[in-house]
Specification:
- Helix 1 runs parallel beside helix 2.
- By secondary structure, the chain is an alpha/beta fold.
- The chain has 13 helices and 24 strands.
- Strands 22-23-1-24 form a four-stranded mixed beta sheet. A four-stranded mixed beta sheet has the order 2-15-17-16. It has a four-stranded mixed beta sheet with strand order 4-5-3-14, covered by helices on one side.
- The chain binds shikimate-3-phosphate.
């Protein structure tokens, strides 16, 4: 068994430069899904008995959640790579602040899950997480009876006073957010009655899919783009063994590289094909991408596909705003791909990108401009003038603002652009994709230090 305090992912830092490469080839197992990994730890930590998780994503974000649930009272141990055992217990006040690092999912879901216990917990995070809005979770939790004190109108650090007498609420989140929805549903597991979350535009439903596996009484009704989730509080949760499916958001980077680098053909195996996560791949097919999807079974109730990607001549498209929830993390890499298309790509409905690990809308626009791509940036829109298959000029220095998805997008840009692209710092890649450098090396792409 490994001591959790000693666990951190392999985290190379500093600048890296990516140069044009041809002929990416090989097969990669898609990295384990981050959203499912957080939830597997949280549900297992709430459930009676021992749950075994296999293929857990061992990224910095997920490790922070593992440490937090251990500090809240669960017994957590690691048997080997990705193989974890978690025994749940009623949660109690942690002895020290819970530091969720860079992870919005970790902190927001844990606030919701902790809300239903008579405990007091302080939540902290890094500079990026401390600047992100937490009132979107603390406000509905306060309607349920949770008291909290937070910095600066709803930022971290936040002190939360949970209660075993939570009131159920009926809530429509003002922004499309799976994190907000999940925090309320997790709190609702302990409320006295039925908690209802209405979403006009349904977001990823991993919490809803996974809760019944652990015995929760949770149902979802879908009607077109909207969904209503209902959870009845008080059902005892019991242990469940789960294997984590592959992450479509992480697989997007190798997919993009194969599309824009000449003479490439790669396969990503075991990618979760959940429609609420698959918007990028739908968009790529509309752009003319050569993607072949073959069914590859299921894990944790999620259908999987193997995706074969070949270099493609792409055309610009109009990405509708109602697709945003299904590809919210993929706009930085889609903007890079769009720079290699013929014609313009228009992306709308992107306001939420400004509240991510960085202002991803402004940062994606700056990434493209630094590499000679013409763009138009609006309040919640981005238009990219594609440079065609020979790609943009490149030669830029990408400011990542300590955002993992910006760092990976900048490196992928450099693999296809006409001149090398440098990314200011790659340390944050370990928050979501610690195997990024090994995976890209296996496909034939090596990044230079500096
Ligand atoms: C996540 C939800 C999304 C996404 C994040 C993971 C989740 O955030 O950006 O990477 O696991 O619930 P929002 O729900 O705030 O959009």
């Amino acid at each position: 068994m490994t001591d959790l305090a000693d666990l951190s992912s392999n985290r190379p830092g500093g600048a890296r430069t990516a140069r044009r490469v041809k002929g990416l080839a090989g097969t990669l197992a898609a990295p384990p899904d981050k959203s499912v990994s957080h939830r597997a730890l949280i549900f297992s930590a709430l459930a009676a008995g021992e749950s075994r998780i296999t293929g857990l994503l061992e990224s910095d974000d997920v490790l922070a959640t593992a440490r937090a649930v251990a500090a809240l009272g669960a017994e957590v141990s690691r048997d080997g790579s990705g193989a974890w055992r978690v025994s749940g217990a009623p949660w109690t006040s942690p002895a020290a602040p819970l530091d969720l690092g860079n992870s919005g999912t970790g902190v927001r879901l844990l606030m919701g899950a902790a809300a239903r216990f008579d405990l007091e917990a302080v939540f902290t995070g890094d500079a990026s997480l401390s600047s992100r809005p937490m009132a979107r979770v603390l406000d509905p939790l306060s309607q349920m009876g949770v008291r909290s004190e937070s910095a600066d109108g709803g930022r971290l650090p936040a002190r939360l006073f949970g209660s075993s007498r939570l009131k159920p609420i009926e809530y429509t989140p003002p922004v499309a957010s799976a994190q907000v929805k999940s925090a309320i549903l997790l709190a609702g597991l302990g409320a006295e009655g039925e908690t209802i979350v209405r979403e006009p535009h349904a977001t990823r439903a991993h919490t809803e899919t996974m809760a019944p596996l652990y015995g929760a009484h949770l149902t979802v009704e879908r009607d077109g783009a909207s969904a209503v989730a209902r959870v009845r509080g008080g059902a005892p949760l019991t242990a469940f063994d789960l294997e984590v499916p592959g992450d479509p958001s992480s697989a997007a980077f190798a997919t993009a590289a194969a599309l824009i680098c000449a003479d490439s053909a790669i396969t990503l195996s075991g990618v979760m094909t959940n429609p609420a996560r698959f918007g990028l791949y739908v968009t790529l097919q509309e752009m003319g991408a050569d993607l072949t999807l073959s069914p590859a079974g299921a894990r944790a109730g999620e259908a999987l596909v193997d995706i074969t990607v070949k270099s493609s001549v792409l055309k610009g498209v109009d990405v509708p705003p109602d697709r945003a929830p299904s590809m919210i993390d993929e706009y930085p890499i889609l903007s890079v791909i769009a720079a290699f298309a013929e014609g313009r790509t228009v992306m709308r409905g992107l306001a939420e990108l400004r509240a991510k690990e960085s202002d991803r809308l402004a940062a994606s626009a700056a990434l493209l401009q630094a590499n000679g791509v013409t763009i138009e940036l609006g309040e919640d829109t981005l238009v990219v003038e594609g440079c065609g298959p020979d790609g943009p000029p490149g030669g830029g220095l990408v400011q990542t603002h300590h955002d993992h998805r910006l760092a990976m997008s900048g490196l992928v840009m450099g693999l296809g652009a006409r001149a090398p692209v440098t990314v200011d710092d790659v340390a944050m890649i370990a928050t979501s994709y610690p195997g990024f450098f090994d995976d890209f090396a296996a496909l034939g792409a090596v990044f230079e230090a500096g």
